[in-house]
Design a protein that fits this description.
Length: 259
């Protein structure tokens, strides 16, 4: 249950700014003391904050212009995931909920302001009674192999300086395997076989659940989907281009962490 009171009771304080988290150590996640949490509230630097007492944490989202207090540092959240820190699940949950709350301020039915539920993780419209639960967007990401090489793409509109795996959101009515086959066909023009699930990771940017797969080329020549893909190539595993940073699902697939 989400509430905004009794912050001092929280075991962990998770303070975010965009895709970074505040820590008192530069290379290790060590949440700041409660006094800093109160200072951000006092100076009205937080856009949202709440506590989940059952989960043992309080969290806060700062404005992107907020600076770190003396003795603190900003660490990219993906580094927390890469290190498999014991707080990584709470970090993913807290940030995903903050992002959801930012998008769920008003009722989609009557337009009234939403309020936190008193007995579950949800937002409630007191005017019409509608209840809104946290959103989760399942997305597949796949590493396709052919004759010992892997397929990587450079996109036109995001992460344009790196090559990464093909990925996409599930559509209503399809299975995960069907989603993999469709996205590969749409983005690369080839068909795949032996689609195999290898793992998953919460990716709260803003609300994805990344479902990782491996697959093998079956037929077809590479034809990039021109509105999204700038270029596609088969790469030797020992001669890779610039790839996503560690901590991401794509990095784990490409480097073999997810097998």
């Amino acid at each position: 249950m989400i509430t905004t009171i009794h912050v001092d009771d929280a075991q962990h304080l998770l303070i975010f700014r965009a895709n970074q988290i505040l820590t008192v150590k530069q290379d290790v996640l060590s949440p700041p003391p409660v006094e800093i949490y109160h200072k951000f509230l006092e100076y009205q630097l937080a856009s949202d904050w709440f506590i989940e007492r059952e989960q043992g944490y309080a969290t806060m989202l700062l404005e992107e212009t907020a600076t770190e207090p003396a003795g603190c540092h900003w660490v990219f959240i993906r580094e927390v995931f890469f290190a498999k820190h014991e707080l990584a699940p709470l970090v993913a949950r807290a940030l995903a909920l903050l992002n959801w709350r930012k998008r769920s301020r008003f009722c989609g039915k009557c337009g009234s302001q939403l309020h936190d539920s008193t007995d579950e993780t949800a937002r409630v419209c007191l005017s019409c009674g509608n209840v809104y639960y946290p959103s989760l967007s399942p997305a597949m990401i796949v590493l396709v192999e052919k004759d010992g090489k892997i397929l990587l793409a450079r996109h036109k509109h995001r992460n344009t300086d790196i090559f990464t795996c093909l990925a996409g959101y599930m559509e209503p009515g399809e299975t995960l395997e069907e989603c993999v086959a469709r996205e590969v066909q749409e983005e690369a023009g080839i068909t795949v076989k032996n689609i195999r699930y290898v793992g998953s990771k919460s990716w709260p940017f803003p609300d994805q659940l990344m479902l990782a797969f491996r697959a093998e080329w079956e037929s077809g020549e590479l034809v990039p989907e021109t509105s999204e893909i700038h270029e596609l190539h088969w790469f030797d595993k020992n001669n890779l281009p610039a790839i996503p940073l560690r901590g991401s699902v794509a990095h784990d697939l490409i480097t073999g962490v997810m097998k």
